Amino acid sequence: TLGGEVPDGQCVQMSYDACGGTCQWATCRDGDWDCGSDACGAEHPHDACVEREPPVRPIGEGCYSRTLGQRVYDGDRVQMAYAACGAGPCRWAICNDGDWDCTANPARGDEYPHRSCR
After folding, report:
1. Is the pTM value of this prediction over 0.85?
2. 75: which residues sit within 8 A by CB, 6+ positions away?
3. Which residues share a beta bridge with 87?
């Protein structure tokens, strides 16, 4: 995640599936990873896990995308590499006024394909 050594007692947030899901925390303890972030000497959040607010768009409420690690606009369509929408990976969902709609097609806004689904 950080591309280097982490001192004992420091915590790192992982953008991949580890410790029970994506964007979970682990603490370096005696050269090994301990899931959780209790009593961290320092925390290193992963940029992909920080929720960002999109610029104001006048139509509908946006949605948070785990795939992108940020909020998207109402009408944007995101492809998910994990099992979602009651089916396997690589399904598309469109943000529909704050909720994900797996049946809406095509996007009314931007589309975000997932690179592992090509």
Report:
1. no
2. 59, 60, 94, 95, 96, 107, 108, 109
3. 84
CA-nearest of 15, 13, 47, 16 to 28 is: 13
89 Cβ contact partners less than 8 Å away, ≥ 6 residues apart: 80, 81, 82, 83, 116, 117
Sheet holding 24-29, edge to edge: 32-35, 24-29, 11-14, 43-44
Closest alpha carbon to 36 in 24, 47, 46: 24
E-state strands within 1-118:
11-14, 24-29, 32-35, 43-44, 63-65, 70-72, 77-80, 91-96, 99-101, 111-112
Residue with tokens 């050594």: 5
Half-sphere CA count of 67, side-chain side, radius 13 A: 26
Query: Which pair of structure tokens corresponds to residue 56?
Result: 């104001």
Give CA–CA dist 101/105, Å, rounded. 9
Mean pLDDT by 10 residues, the chain (118 residues): 82 84 87 80 79 59 85 88 82 90 80 82
